[in-house]
Amino acid sequence: MRIQKKLNNNVVVVKDGAIEKIVMGRGLAFNKKNGEEVDEAIIDKVFTLSNKDTANKFQELIVDIPIDHVEIAEQIISYAKTQLGKKLNETLYISLVDHIYTAIERFLNGIVISNTLLWDIRRFYPDEFAIGLTALDMIEERFGLHLPDDEAGFIALHLVNAEIDENSVKNMYQITKVMQEVTSIVKYKFHIEFDEDNVYYYRFITHLKFFAQRLLSGTSYEDEKDDDLLNVVKKRYENAYSCVKAISKFIFEKYAYILSNEEELYLTIHIERVINKMSKY
Known about the structure:
The chain is an alpha+beta fold and 281 residues long. It has helices spanning 52-62, 67-84, 92-108, 118-124, 126-143, 149-163, 172-190, 199-217, 227-236, 238-255, 261-278, and strands spanning 2-8, 11-16, 19-24, 45-47. It is globular, with a radius of gyration of 20 Å. It has three domains: 2-48, Transcription Regulation, Sacy, Chain A (Roll); 67-163, PTS-regulatory domain, PRD; 169-278, PRD domain (PTS-regulatory domain, PRD), CATH 1.10.1790.10. The two termini are 32 Å apart. It is 60% helix and 8% strand. It contains eleven helices and four strands, in the order E-E-E-E-H-H-H-H-H-H-H-H-H-H-H. It has a four-stranded antiparallel β-sheet with strand order 1-2-3-4.
C-alpha cells in the first residue's frame, strides 16, 4: 500500500489497488512522503468507506483528533454492529468520533451537559442505550474517565440515527424543509455561503436534523439546569445568540413551536462554531 496523502503522523490515505483506504498506526507516516510504501507491521486500523463524501469528511475530521479517540470510537462501532445485527450508516464514523472526542474534552474541562432525552432514550431504544453504557465502560477502561450516563444516551442517539434509512422516513421532506429554512436564516444573518463539504457544516446539519425531528413531533425539552450555561453562552456568543432568537421567532410564527432553553443553547453553540470555522476558510 502506497501513501496517497498524509493526514498526520499517525494517519494516511493509501491506494490498495484501486481501493482508497484510511490507515492508522502510531508513527505510520513519520518521515514518510507521498508515494512511499507504508509499514504494514505497525498498522492498527484500516477504514474502507464506500461513500467518497463520507470518506472525505472523515479524513478532514481525524486530522486534529488523537488516535486513541478514533480507535475507541471504532471499537464501539464494531461492538454495536455485532450487538444490533444491523447495517449502520457510514456517517456514524464521523458523528461518533466527533462526539467521543468532544465529550472527553468537555469532561476534562469540568463541563457536564445533561441529556434531557435520557429517560426517553432508555425507554424507546433499550438496545442502543445498553451499548452506550458498555461504551462508557470501554472509555473508562482506556482513559480512566467515568463519564455520566447522559453520555450513554447521546451515544445511543448517534446509533439510532445511523440505523435510519432516510429514504423510508415519511417526514424526511418536512425535516429537510425545516433544515433549509434555518440555514437560510443563518446565511442571511451572517452574509455567508456554507461550504457543504466542510466537516463543521456537517456537524451543524446533523444537529438541525435532530432539532427538526423534535419540532415536527411536537416534542420540546426543557432543563432548568441549563439556564446558567445559556446566560454565559449568549453573552459570549452574542451574534450567534441573536441569530438563534431570529430562528426562534420564525419557528414560533410558522410552526407554533417554542424553542426551549436547551435548544437555544445548543443552536447557539453550533452556529457559533460553524460561523467561526467558515470565516477561517
